Amino acid sequence: MVPPEYYLVLSAAIFCIGLFGILTRRNALYFLMSAELMLNAAVINLVAFSFQWGNLTGQTFALFVIALAAAEVAVGIGIVLVLYRNFGDVDVLNAATMRW
Q: Transmembrane stretches, by residue range (predicted)?
């Protein structure tokens, strides 16, 4: 049996990779992938604690987080397509010029 600490270290590593990607990348697709990594790290934490305590609450919340991530991808892809159509690039710094 794998101890829960291993899952927490894995989750922390994945979260840090996602945070690094959000803070350093300018491409909107990399930005979305980094946000997905951070959400997956949260799901790993929820499932690890659910397994440790022996109840299904964490796994239930993990399903909700996965559904939220799917909705975020759908909205994010729409935003990326609008960025590309308007500017010919998916650089997130160009989005500052899309104000009303």
A: 6-23, 30-49, 61-84
